[in-house]
Amino acid sequence: MKALLLALMLLFFLGCGDVSQKYTTIAANTWIGYLPLAYAHEMGWLKKDRFILKWTNSLSESKTLFRLGLCEGFCATQYEVLSDPQIKAKSSPYFFIDQSLGADQILSNVPLQELKRSPKIEVYLELSSVNEALLDAFVKANDLNASFKLNDTTQDNLLQMSFKKPSLIVTYEPYATILRQRGFFLVDSSKTLQPFIRIYDLFFGQKRVAPHRVRLLYMSFLKGLQQLQQRPQYFYEIVKKYIPHVSYEEFRKELKGIRWIQKPSPMDIAYLKSQGFDTSKLLYP
Q1: How far apart are CA 30 and CA 170, in angstroms?
Q2: In this predicted model, what pLDDT tens digit does every residue of 264-276 receive, in sequence order?
Q3: Nearest Cα to Cα of residue 201 among 257, 125, 157, 252
Q4: What domains, with CATH codes, occur in the chain?
Q5: Which contacts qualify for 158-164: CB closer than 8 Å, 24 or more apart?
Q6: Residue 106, Cβ neighbours under 10 Å: how many?
Q7: Distance in angstroms (rounded) separating the CA atoms of residues 126 and 171
Q8: Which of 27, 107, 141, 249 has the fewest Cβ atoms within 10 Å of its own Cβ atom?
Q9: Statement: the pTM of the whole predicted model exceeds 0.85
């Protein structure tokens, strides 16, 4: 009995030690605004603070990891969270990353006027994401009456596909740049659709996550952003493996499509509140 008791006590104390050394897993996909976190990972800052970054290939993958409890937080727009009541119930927005002002785009293989005459349009997008919200805004803004066939796919898959019928692609940077290089037309974006939609990128975490852990992550993000603003060429060299096929010049141009949010305005916060988010845990520099 004594031996068993000692063994249980040993396991308990070892377990306590493991908790103190526990890593926090976060997920982010290939969006231009999340690259400061990729930079922080490459520089070893995240590992030093016991964070693991899972770099995913789609918004849906990040959502799935969070829903299944395989990560404690993830980067997303408010629309990924709004589309999943389970995720919304167990998450809180902890800090703003950016506002999309043109980097979320709707592309087509035919001009807009031809789209308006098409009775049926193929749409390729990530369902239950900001892609779907942007499409809804586009349809409303252009008063389109066509029949839409929605095809759920990832951005990486889009780069491998060929399109013969009149089609819409709902995408975001850096993928939009690559697709435009392959002949697609820009027909609308988060900048021109602002009267119908506002897109914010944020870090969402579990409601029970320790505040000091989120602040450590936020500080690493801000430090990465500072490096981007002060040493853009060096920053690009560090993160370019996350955005293959995008040159430094294209990277700089893509950044013009977002507004970094280091200190959210009252309007930014009010918009989140109007969508039903609890903003009480938001961090500021």
Answers
A1: 15
A2: 999 999 999 999 9
A3: 257
A4: 23-100+198-274 (3.40.190.10), 104-189 (3.40.190.10)
A5: 158/124, 161/124, 163/109, 163/122, 163/124
A6: 29
A7: 8
A8: 249
A9: yes
